[in-house]
Design a protein that fits this description.
This protein is of the alpha+beta class. The chain is built from five helices and three strands. It is elongated. This is Transcriptional regulator.
């Protein structure tokens, strides 16, 4: 018998942390690279610094993203990267979306 709270429908495999549109866009951007500069992600996702910063905090607390600070010359820079757990969660989330859309998974 299927547990009504954790049934067989693929929506149960969606990751609540990744599912929010801005966080999904951030994770998708980071999935395409080993790491990315904060400004690149901000501009790609089309959000403000504060919005990206808040969403990165959520992703970092979930263990999906690592934030590294450093310098290029004398200018401070922040780099963002998916952790292995973040890559796994993103792949599983995308698989669930494909299954919901009827494209297999």
């Amino acid at each position: 018998m299927t547990d009504p709270l954790h049934g067989a429908h693929p929506r149960h495999a969606l990751d609540d942390v990744i599912h929010a549109p801005v966080r999904f866009s951030i994770v998708a951007t980071l999935a395409a690279a080993e790491k990315a500069e904060f400004a690149f992600v901000r501009d790609t996702v089309e959000v403000s610094d504060s919005v990206l910063s808040r969403q990165m905090t959520t992703l970092e607390k979930a263990g999906y993203v690592v934030v590294k600070k450093g310098y290029v010359g004398k200018r401070p820079r922040t780099w963002l990267a998916l952790t292995p757990a973040g890559r796994t969660a993103f792949a599983a989330h995308c698989q669930a979306l494909r299954a919901i859309a009827g494209d297999g998974g």
